[in-house]
Write a structure and sequence with these properties.
Blueprint lengths: L1 H29 L4 H26 L7 H28 L5 H28 L7 H42 L6
Length: about 180
């Protein structure tokens, strides 16, 4: 009886291994990282880092005696960063179809942060421009929210970029060793 079992396993195992190998090779080819998306994410990481620094600095203005002109200059910088990220996001969405699943997740997660940053940045601009509908306490909350969302966005994009670099490194090492960790 063992002889029959070993014979069947001996013939089925290579067949199953071939099926798994063919399947994983097809999946790996289908989900190859997009160079364009990788570059755009790296660009987004840089801009998000600048946005974070400016938003955190501006949030600190509420605890110091800083002129309205300084507030206006800072929010203009923040607005430029948010707009730049919006342009990058548009390019990312255009390239989404060629992206690997992890890259698609990055693209999809950026938009909600930008929506919030757009709203809070506009509220800060309205306050600086003298819109009577916002109190100083609300203004401080808007600045804090901007700093929080900018910090979270920068961290999230950085993690995705780091993941892509680590994945690329693992694939390179796997190729050297003739093993395929992501296949």
């Amino acid at each position: 009886m063992n002889r029959i079992k070993n014979t069947v396993v001996g013939k089925v195992a290579p067949f199953l291994a071939g099926c798994v190998l063919a399947s994983s090779t097809a999946e790996a080819t289908e989900f190859r990282d997009s160079e364009a998306v990788t570059k755009l994410l790296a660009e987004a990481k840089s801009v998000a880092s600048q946005l974070k620094a400016d938003a955190v600095a501006m949030e600190g203005f509420t605890r110091a005696n800083v002129s309205v002109e300084s507030h206006a200059a800072a929010i203009n910088e923040i607005r430029e960063h948010v707009n730049a990220l919006g342009r990058i996001e548009t390019k990312l969405k255009d390239a989404r179809e060629t992206a690997a699943p992890w890259q698609k997740a990055a693209v999809d997660r950026i938009e909600p942060y930008l929506d919030e940053l757009d709203g809070y940045t506009l509220a800060v601009i309205e306050h600086i421009n003298g819109a009577p509908k916002h109190t100083f306490a609300e203004y401080k909350d808007f600045l804090e929210a901007n700093a929080d969302y900018a910090t979270d966005l920068a961290a999230m994009i950085a993690v995705f970029v780091d993941y892509g670099k680590a994945k690329e490194r693992m694939e390179g090492l796997g190729a050297k060793l003739e093993v395929h960790p992501f296949k």
